[in-house]
Amino acid sequence: MTTRGVSGRVSPRVSPFISWLALGLALGGALFAPWSAARAETLNDRFAAANSGDKTPMNVDADKVTYNDHEHTVVATGDVQIYYKKKILEADKVTYFRDSGQVLAEGSVKLTDSDGSVTHADKMELSGDFKRGFVDSARSDSKDRTHMTATRTEKLDEETTVFEKGAYTACDTCAEHPDRAPVWRLRARKIIHKNAEQRLYYENATFELFGLPIVWFPFLSTPDPSVPRASGFLAPHLSYNATTTGFGVGQPYFYVISPDKDVTVTPYYYANQGFRGDVEYRQRLDNGYFTLDLTGIHQNNPSAFAGWPYGAEKTRADRGMVQSQGTIWLNQSWKFGWDIARASDKWFNNDYQVGNNTLNGNYFRENSSTVYITGQGDRGYFDLRGYSFQGLANTDYQPQLAAVWPMLDYNKTISLDPAKTFGIGGEIEIDANYTRSTATLASYQQIGSYQYDSRYGMFSVCRATATNPNAYSQSNCLLRGIGGEYDSATIQLSWKRKFIDPLGEVWTPFTFARANLNYLNANVNGSTSFSRSYVDASGDTQTITDTVSNANQANFLSHNDKFGGYITPGVGLEWRYPLLSKTPIGDMVIEPIAQIIARPNGQATNNMVNLDAQSLVFDDSNLFEWNKYSGYDRFETGVRANYGAQFTYDLHEYGSASALVGQSAQVAGVNSYATPDAANIGLSSGLDKPLSDYVTRLAYAPSANYSFIAKTRFDQSDWSMRRIDVQARAKYGPLAFGVNYANYVAQPLIGYNERREGLGLTSRYDMFQNYFVQGDITWDLGRHNYDDVTYVIGNKTYYAPSAPLFAIASWGAGIGYQDECLKLGLNYRDSISDGYGYPPNYNRNKSVLFTLELRTLGDIRAPFSLTPSVIQDGVRTN
After folding, report:
1. The predicted structure's pLDDT at residue 8
2. pLDDT, tens digit, for every residue of 455-502?
3. Consecutive H or E run containing 36
4. What's the rounded Cα separation, in Å, for the pair 72 and 100?
5. Could you give the residue ranges of the DSSP H alpha helices within 792-874?
6. The LptD C-terminal domain covers which part of the protein (predicted)?
7. What is the DSSP string of 376-405?
8. So what CATH class is 1-141?
């Protein structure tokens, strides 16, 4: 036997010993053998000899190499590293058997594959090309942090690997307790990995959670963790509702049609209602994507649901929904798209827990559908779209909901070079909008306390009062929506430029012109009635009827089937003077601001339509806006001044603070906010007086873990609080909590007859590493204001349910676990449904939600409804 060796560390690529060995063997081979045989005598070539003619170089690095001519072996010892075809084999000792072409690696073996996955073992038996072999006590770690262990692994070829008594998990090993079982794992008698199929097959498998066996599977197949999408069964869907659907289970199957297409088919079964089908198709295009989701059911027991208007018709057996989304990029700047959601009835989403993009949590409010084309350019955009709405709230009456088509928005800002514009400079902004809205039936709301129809106590109506016998008049009622057609086109052209003088004062002159053209074609026909019969004191049957009629719109509109409009030019100046002061603890900036805007009075608006500017909240965010209305249907008139000051303090290591206080004044002309439209927008806003209310903002954030902000509005005459919003967040160690408080004064002229007040608390406590509990509660502090409200229907008087000061609107609690591979949660929710009927009946909605999310395997969401009521937010508005 002849041995040759060298001690000491060698080059990571080719050691000196290997070089001398190759030279000696080459010279000897020239005398006694063909050159090709001599070439196979190098260690690199001996390992590569079994590679079936593959000439890919193999680089070997080791502390010591022993060559045994008698046993035809080459042994590398001491921190051995072999590099071949982007694979790396590391071990304490590697033996190459020349006759069989096998490689035996022993001691702290580590094989890194070309895809980044790593296999650890005590011993590996491999073919010379690493394509086949046996591994004892193996642990394989992939680049996406998934892990496989087995008592013995056999790599049959590059296609198939068999793990005997194997286990798979996506959870990392606990650093402090490496012998502890992972959070979850799939253990099986045998796991077979098919590389070409990119699937794992489990035989006699058990799913374990926190070391405890949970579910046993005789056979199971899952995609390879590295596969982003593969055909197969997904996690089941579970639900429960004791009174309507019973227990429900759905088993989705995901099928990959092609690299750019797939479909998910989900058959559901409900104990009380039978089978429901759901098919969702998705396709990716070269320039976009689209999806189509169809769901439907033929109910076995439709009478289990409440009848209209509390639920779908008891005779409606066929129910369903269609949803579709899509975006197609026409080029880099333009795209066409749609987002469609429409159900057979407004209760389907809630009854079968079908969500869409417009639904937040469990608050089912509307199905919104839109089709659009949008262009985005340099400081400009174009948007053309249409909307259709399906109301889901109890009080929604579908004929009153508008369809909006088309709605066009265009905005463009153009910078002017003073050198090319005769010194004018600044920037020009073009803003344009066109909206067409149609609805079948007008929408009304009582001024003061809400009034609902006499039959169901659900739909908004107006009623005569002791002081006003005309129910549908401007002094008694609001026109919220037009029954008919309303078209409005608005364009505004504005210019502004900023100047900074030597003192640091910032002057911004601006000018604008706004033009509006509108067309109103209100329906004079069409109505709906709600009737209720009762027996009077004499024993006679009487009937009370509430009628919602389009004809009553004439009381709010000065013209019909005519064009209208206005042109409003304006000019203004804004002044700011930021004053910087450096203090020992930070940098402080105080900035007084003043603004004056002059416009003509414009036309009277007491009978104008207002559909898109009904949301008006005067606060710090719009104090210095040229126009404080939220939409295009209303615009400020006259001469108005806005003034105030803001303060910021950068406290460096102590965080930051800011504050603002300001006021607006009608200097001359007609105050548009004191001139009501058909919905009384502007009244009770704080802007409807010559001197507006004061608005303030105070914020402080000492660090990233703590923040506080308060926005308030104070009456200008006595500083009484008219509105306050407070938000606070804090995180101290494992405890995090938040506070939200709001208090709004009564605004009967726009339909809020009582003060609205609410308090919400949220909290989370991380008990241990990865474990947490959380909870939230919302109090409706204004509900008790309705204790004395009466409803007189016919000869009966009904009283609103009494409520304590701290009336709970909703509360919830949950416990959960979350780490890098598992999300587990159990949450309980209790809330109040919106009241309807006479007297209003406020039922509590109770539900439980179980969630389980396993990284790489899927997730399960199981909502269980403990009450049959429609879930709402629990805050009273009437």
Report:
1. 32
2. 888 899 998 887 888 999 999 999 999 999 999 999 999 999 999 999
3. helix 35-39
4. 10
5. none
6. 318-755
7. EETTEEEEEEEEEEEE-STT--GGGSPEEE
8. mainly beta
